[in-house]
Amino acid sequence: MGVTMDQVLDDLEAETRVLYELVADLGDPGIAAATPAAGWSIRDQLTHLAYFDETATLAAVNPPAFRRAAEALMAGGEDFPDRIAAEHAELPAADVRDWLVRARREFVAVFRGIDPKARLPWYGPDMSALSSATARLMETWAHGQDVADALGRPREPTDRLRHIAHLGVRTTAFSFSLNGKPVPDGPIRVDLTAPSGARWTWGPEGAADRVSGTALDFCLVVTQRRHLDDTALRADGPVAREWLSIAQAFAGAPGTGRGPSHRGGRS
Asked: Are 263 and 257 in contact (CB under 8 A)?
């Protein structure tokens, strides 16, 4: 893909501004509104982002401290995102926004000065600093989708989706392994139309298994914000169809996904 750390962080900041605009005027009743993620409020979506911004920063500046904290957290079970949300369920709206602003600002400042290839620990396999920044962008966009859906507010898709689409393609093998399925031997061709009208492709043109459609639909599926049946994505070939049924661009336990009409899992 050939992007720089500054490009990813610039797009992260742009995506963050979209999210801030959605929640800027929410008071305590508004921030407690339910989202399509079962059991999660808008507050839970925002505290999730703030918490993991802070831990991503910790992973960059003090990897041993991060590993200790992550091991302790995961020792309590794979439901740790729900436990984190519950711990902050009474936080006032203003404090939630302040936390997210502070955590995001610190994350961006630290990652602008880090080697993009540096290996950082995470809740699962280590990743590069560039991948960590891309993951924060993906999470911001995905959880922002839940917030937008809760508020009934549309978001204009942009070509920032390329980062998320690329991550979705790169996590193909991860998605199969995470669900206890053999990783496919053959390639999958992904052919997407960007919001700008550009064409984004991955994989050989002659691949038997193919996915095609809009970048927006693809990103909604790989972040498990929409059920495949609620999109116009086309999957040709058994491997492509199976992949889109389990695709997961985020770390952690296998996501529960969303049923038709995008109600369901919280990842």
From this structure: no
> Which DSSP string do the residues of 47-60 spell out, in sequence order?
HHHHHHHHHHHHHH
pTM, two decimals, is 0.94
Q: What is the pLDDT of residue 262?
A: 55
Instruction: Tell me how far apart the alpha carbons of residues 257 and 263 are, in angstroms, rounded to a whole number.
Output: 9
Q: Which residue has the tokens 């790989």?
A: 222
- With a CB cutoff of 8 Å and minimum separation 6, the contacts of 165 are 190, 192, 200, 215, 218, 219, 222
Instruction: State the SS3 of 67-111.
Output: HHHHHHHHHCCCCHHHHHHHHCCCCCHHHHHHHHHHHHHHHHHHH
- Walk along the chain (267 residues) in steps of 10 and give the mean pLDDT of each run: 92 98 97 95 98 98 97 92 96 98 98 97 93 97 97 96 97 95 96 98 97 98 96 97 96 83 55
- In this structure, which amino acid lies at residue 61? V
Q: Which is it for the CA torsion 228, 229, 234, 239, positive or negative?
A: positive
Tell me the C-alpha distance between 109 and 118, whole Å: 16
Task: Judge whether 70 and 56 are in contact, CB under 8 Å.
Answer: no
Q: How far is CA 194 from the centre of its chain?
A: 18
Residue 215 pLDDT = 98
What is each CA distance from 105 to 134, 205, 209, 240, in whole angstroms? 15, 41, 41, 38
β-strands 209-214, 263-264 pairing? unpaired
Residue 81's Cα: distance from chain center in Å?
A: 13
